[in-house]
Amino acid sequence: LPRPMAPLELHHQLSSISSNNQLSNNHIHPAIPTLGHLYITHSLLGGNARCRAMLQTFALLLQAYTPPPTSRDFRHDVDHSLLKPAFQYWTTQCRPHSVSMGNAFSFLKLAVANLERELEWNHAREILLESMEAYVTERIEYAGKAISRHAGSKIQEKGDVILVFGKSEVINRLLLDAALVDKKTFRVIVVDSRPLLEGRDTLEILSRAGISCTYVLLNALSYLMMREVTKVFLGASALMSNGSVLSRVGTACVALLANSNHIPVLVGCETYKICNRVQLESITGNELGDAEEVACTDCARLGPSNRWNGTVERGDSSGEKSEGEVLADWKDQPNLKLLNLMYDLTPSDFVTGIVTEVGILPPSSVAVLLREMSPESAFKGTS
Fold first, then answer.
1. Which helix (H) or strand (E) holds 368?
2. Which residue from 199, 266, 191 is spatially nearest to 225, judged by alpha carbons?
3. Are the CB atoms for 196 and 248 separated by under 8 Å?
4. In terms of Cα–Cα distance, which of 143, 88, 134 is closest to 108?
5. Within a 13 Å sphere around the CA of 48, how many CA atoms are in the beta-carbon half?
6. With CB atoms 3.0 to 4.6 Å apart as the test, which of 61, 218, 229, 315 could cross-link to 193 if both were Cys?
7. What is the pLDDT of residues 200-221, one digit of tens each?
């Protein structure tokens, strides 16, 4: 495979693909494997980033697609010849889709189904493009601003010590707004864990903004939680209908320890990430990452994006193994298995409040949001 690209390169890569490529049963538009490569190499992480990239790619596919002349209903052709093949490619050949991607895909299918059959294709395509743009603007961008406003009100003017885990787009945004816009003074403790080490990106973003930061790994959490932390802000990959939070593995440990020390835990999450599933543990429905990432003890990454340095330092001429080769032969050990879970589930009992674009709500209100923020209501909001 070619060198993984940073997330910021996605727009340039997709824009460079000719819009004259047609998608048919015998040909896959080059934008589909391009985005799939970013997914599978973890060059593109985070529910919002993955959802934006998916909708951007769908927009490119729609611009390049023309229904066949023999088509009786272009809605059926768009659904079965354009949208489903691309989505199935990403979910079966690359990575399981996130809840954010699944909800956005359901919205897009509903938008296609609600088109008038007699519409000209060019007009229908413009409606779909506008619907996707409105979805990103309202459900992601505007939602992030509202969450920043609601959660920022809980940060004191001076003296707060805020703990965050890994990397969350919405949490980074509210911290930047609190420091740069509201001029509040606080310190951030960035907790990180292997193998992705996403907290390094958070540390870089906040440090460049002039926010005082401390960087620690997950194994130092108990010492810091008992001595310094006043608030915990966490991101979420999904909200289950019973109020549980699905997020990057390690989040449940942070919430559990904060709850045991009576420290408030606020979870920032857009309503489009709410899932109608009920999940009680972290094994069912989880995603397995590459076990080689756990075996690699080097922890080195290339640049700010989440990409692995596949090179492992070799031992010297004396024949001794270097630190990076400790688990190099793990596949040859019959009694050794490596498990790399991508997510864990935080019970609602460990969460003080869920910060959404509609306000700060208790976890028990997630079911109400699920009913109010359904794909049907989201589509009506764009019409």
1. helix 366-372
2. 191
3. yes
4. 134
5. 22
6. 218
7. 999 999 999 999 999 999 888 8
Q: Collapsing DSSP states into helix, strand and coil, what is residue 9?
A: helix
Helix (H) or strand (E) holding 55: helix 47-64
Please give the distance of CA 382 from its chain centroid, rounded to a whole number. Answer: 24
Dihedral class, residue 183 (left if φ above 0, else alpha if ψ from -120 to 50, else beta): left
Residue 20 pLDDT exceeds 50: no
Average pLDDT over residues 3-20: 44
| pLDDT value at residue 27 | 67
- What's the burial of 120, exposed, middle or buried (CB within 10 Å: 0-12/13-18/19+)? exposed
**In Å, what is the CA distance from 4 to each residue of 7, 156, 305?**
9, 41, 10
Residue that wins the pLDDT comparison between 25 and 249:
249
Distance, in Å, from the CA atom of 123 to the CA atom of 290, rounded to the nearest integer, reads 44
User: For residue 378, what pLDDT is reported?
Assistant: 47
SS (H, E, C) 181-227: HCCCEEEEEEEECCCCCCHHHHHHHHHHCCCEEEEEEHHHHHHHHHH
- 8 Å CB contact between 254 and 191: yes
Quote the pLDDT of residue 126.
Answer: 93
- Average pLDDT score over the chain: 82
| Predicted confidence band of residue 296 (pLDDT cuts 50, 70, 90) | confident
**Token pair listed for 179:** 């420091």
Q: For residue 355, which phi and psi values (nearest 5 degrees)? A: -95, 115
Distance CA 170, CA 157 (A): 20
DSSP per-residue letters across 106-171: HHHHHHHHTS-TTS-HHHHHHHHHHHHHHHHIIIIIHHHHHHHHHHHTTS-SEEEEEEEES--HHH
Residue 166: is its pLDDT beyond 60?
yes
Identify whether the C-beta of residue 245 lies closer than 8 Å to the C-beta of residue 346: yes
DSSP letter assigned to residue 344? E
Asked if omega into 67 is within 30° of 0 (cis), the reply is no
CA nearest neighbour of 61 among 82, 92, 39: 82
- Nearest Cα to Cα of residue 151 among 186, 132, 128, 178: 178
Determine the Cα–Cα distance for residues 96 and 273; give it in Å rounded to an integer: 15
